[in-house]
Automatic annotation (TrEMBL):
Zn(2+) binds at C11, C14, C71, C74. A zinc finger (C4-type) spans 11-74. It holds the Pfam family Ribosomal_L44. Belongs to the eukaryotic ribosomal protein eL42 family. Part of the 50S ribosomal subunit. The gene is rpl44e. This is Large ribosomal subunit protein eL42. The lineage of its organism: Archaea, Promethearchaeati, Promethearchaeota, Promethearchaeia, Promethearchaeales. One of its GO terms (cellular component) is ribosome. Binds 1 zinc ion per subunit. GO terms for molecular function: large ribosomal subunit rRNA binding; structural constituent of ribosome; zinc ion binding. Binds to the 23S rRNA.
Amino acid sequence: MKFPKNKKIYCAKCKKHTPHKCSIYKKGKDSMMAHGKRRLERKKVGYGSFPKPIQHNQCKVNKKTTPLYKCAECGHVQVGKAQRLKKFEILNK
Ligand SMILES: [Zn+2]
């Protein structure tokens, strides 16, 4: 699916329509100090003790892609609707 690089949409912070720049959301690095991660690391200690089932056969073909819209005036970032797409393309116009 093709997305325009610049789009004029409503900004909740400016309370009017402003030009927004489109980009793709990328997951940040996992924190080793998060509570869930610490709990998992503690459970993984020892022989034969991986607590969660490992999924091997995936039924979904595509991963979800989330577009981000950044306001050109105030820099407020809006999260767009996540969709399952084969190809995510940002048009340079
Ligand atoms: Zn704004």
